Amino acid sequence: MTRTTRAALLLAATALTPALLLSTPASAAVAATTVSATASTPVDQMSDDDVRVAISRILADPASGKAVLREANEALDGTIADQRAFLETGYRLAQAEDDRVAITRILADPKSGKAVIREASRALDGTMDDQRAFLETGYRLAQGEDDRVAALRILADPKSGPALRAAASAALDGTLEELRYFIAVGQYQVH
């Protein structure tokens, strides 16, 4: 496949993605990270053009990692059989490689707390599905646990002033996002 053809497919997929997502059921949009959700038709029943468009949509997705991009481009350079194989199995394997890299980066981050390290390590020791689940929900929950511990330490610290304690208490009563904001930014803004 030539670069011009690939660019045209990528442009078409990018332009059609919002319309395709809005015309499909919500459950299909939620499962967009899996190959089966790339189209409502099984890969073996897709036309050659639909296969190329599905791969182009993956390439246009800003959430696609390096391994996914590498394998998708390699598939587009190959035969239609290569492209179908990518959609059937290669995409999932490349996504798993990207997931392992992302988890390894989280583990290498000196700001990662104990719960994040514990859960990231468990995910790496687990299956591809365990790793995907950690990145989709487990990381957020583990970070929430670490943030809760940090907020409790602020409450227990005799050096914390009344305003900081009040803000920490309010953050503990809020959502995980509010707690994360307090730990990352808000605690430094309290006077």
UniProtKB/TrEMBL annotation:
<dbReference type="Pfam" id="PF03752">
    <property type="entry name" value="ALF"/>
</dbReference>
<keyword id="KW-0732">Signal</keyword>
<dbReference type="InterPro" id="IPR005506">
    <property type="entry name" value="DUF312_ALF"/>
</dbReference>
<feature type="signal peptide">
    <location>
        <begin position="1"/>
        <end position="28"/>
    </location>
</feature>
<protein>
    <recommendedName>
        <fullName>ALF repeat-containing protein</fullName>
    </recommendedName>
</protein>
